[in-house]
Amino acid sequence: MKRVLIANRGEIALRILRACHELGLEALAVYSDVDRNARHVTLADASFCIGPGPVTKSYLQPGAILAAATAMGADAVHPGYGFLAENAEFADACTEAGLIFVGPSAEAIRQMGDKAQARRVAGAAGVPLVPGADIADIADLERQLPEMSFPVLMKAAAGGGGRGMRIVERAEDATQGYMEASREAEAAFGSGVVYWERYVRRARHIEVQVLADRHGAVIDVGERDCTVQRRHQKLVEETPAHDLPDAIREQALSSARALAKGVDYLGAGTVEYIYDLDTGLLHFIEMNTRIQVEHPVSEMVSGADLVREQIRIARGDPIDPMVVNRTLNGHAIECRINAEAWRSGFVPSPGVLSGLVLPGGPGVRVDTHLTVGSEIPPFYDSMIAKIIVHAPDREQARLRMLRALNELQVEGVPTTADLHELILSDPDFASMNISTKWLETRIDDYQVRPSDAA
Ligand code: ADP
Ligand code: ADP
Ligand code: MG
To answer: Which of 23, 80, 174, 279 could be bridged to 12 by S-S, CB 3.0 to 4.6 A?
Structure first.
């Protein structure tokens, strides 16, 4: 492997480019018209335009990306996250074109990408499941109603990014919830298949980072807590999971490794769970077969470079012994900074960055592709930067994050940075007295704070 094509944009494209260069590999960029001057493009060893701004005409076009790979002489493709990262046909197409796909086999992507099937595979590997079942059609749903204990969550089998889910409180609303979830999933993912799970009212989101190589090693790089969410989407992530009972942590880590073994996993992946605060039980929800947005917190406490490991594993190397023998030190927190007017319904707010001052100092890492004058196009995800901090313990990390957020200045577009300051200084967050619904109940309080007037 000498030349790696990066089939992505934004901060993750730059993140992958950095790992390639540190490994002595050439990094090849693809870009849409509007990303022509992006930082990962100017730093790339070669670059290729794959179409206009809209994702369906560029970053979601496997043919255009494969043509770019041929034109630039790539021998591997790193898909990043989002876009084609969990598209099994794309993984197959890369392999057929003689390219190394930096990720697991298309078969593992397929199995885990269908979340209903993933439940079955996970159950067979001994991973604890939340009660639930497939739904073949409305008649099948009606047959199952007597067995369902409400509330239930209708979930799109092809879902991701928190979309295609409906909470149903009562049996009489089940059909409507099912149909709404199905319609939304059909539109977003091209598949209307929906399954149900018991809805856990007071939950923490716990997930495990796994790595597996071609030599039989399957390891975990600890867990992450991503409980701070809005509409099932993560805003703040941290590691380790504060005050999680040791037995639950051990159960999460060992069943994540078992699942990775069970699907012959290769590379970096994440097994996601919810931890029911009322019953004290841990339940599997899904596996993401890619690098995740929040991978840096695991890197901070382990010293591992997870993207480097992904690439090394893909070319056949064993996991670096330094990573296998890692110890996890201190506490890390990440805040996702989005270009959104969060006080007015989290409306994405593209525009030109007229000013940008990034935080620095001890224990602070910023993952962003932006510089002063950068344009944030309207076509893509609104996440523009990630602030990551590392400190000896959670309280010091929390204070360090507040200090870093205070240093951050973004001019030209509204961001969620001030929302993160409210979250990080909230006593509920400080004492970890939160569940996945917590932020949605707090946001109204934040929006009416007197400081808003300023
Ligand atoms: P999930 O929310 O699916 O569990 P992550 O937290 O890792 O997983 O987030 C992945 C999400 O990031 C995608 O669903 C997508 O909305 C978003 N995304 C995809 N590509 C990009 C990108 N290039 N830059 C920023 N965000 C992206
Ligand atoms: P996605 O593929 O969109 O990332 P997930 O299955 O990972 O979907 O779920 C995303 C979030 O939705 C979880 O972090 C959690 O907050 C919530 N969630 C998912 N399943 C359940 C459930 N059975 N009960 C309660 N909350 C759930
Ligand atoms: Mg998920």
So the answer is: 80
Q: Which ligand neighbours the alpha carbon of 274 most closely? A: 2
Catalytic center residues: 290
Q: How far is the CA of 162 from the centre of ligand 2 (A)?
A: 7
Q: What is the pLDDT of residues 26-50, one digit of tens each?
A: 999 999 999 999 999 999 999 999 9
Question: Alpha-carbon distance 104 to 85, whole Å?
Answer: 10
Report H helices in 30-161. 39-42, 62-72, 88-96, 106-113, 115-124, 138-144
Is 38 in a helix, a strand, or coil? Answer: coil
Please tell me the distance between residue 271's alpha carbon and the centre of ligand 1 in angstroms: 16
Question: Which is the closest atom of ligand 2 to the Cα of 198?
Answer: 23
Give the domains, in start order, of the chain with CATH numbers. Answer: 3-102 (3.40.50.20), 131-198 (3.30.1490.20), 203-453 (3.30.470.20)
CA dihedral 217, 219, 221, 222 (to 10 degrees): 180
3-state secondary structure of 341: strand
State the Cα–Cα distance between residues 240 and 72, nearest whole angstrom.
Answer: 41
Whether the per-residue pLDDT at 116 is higher than 70: the answer is: yes
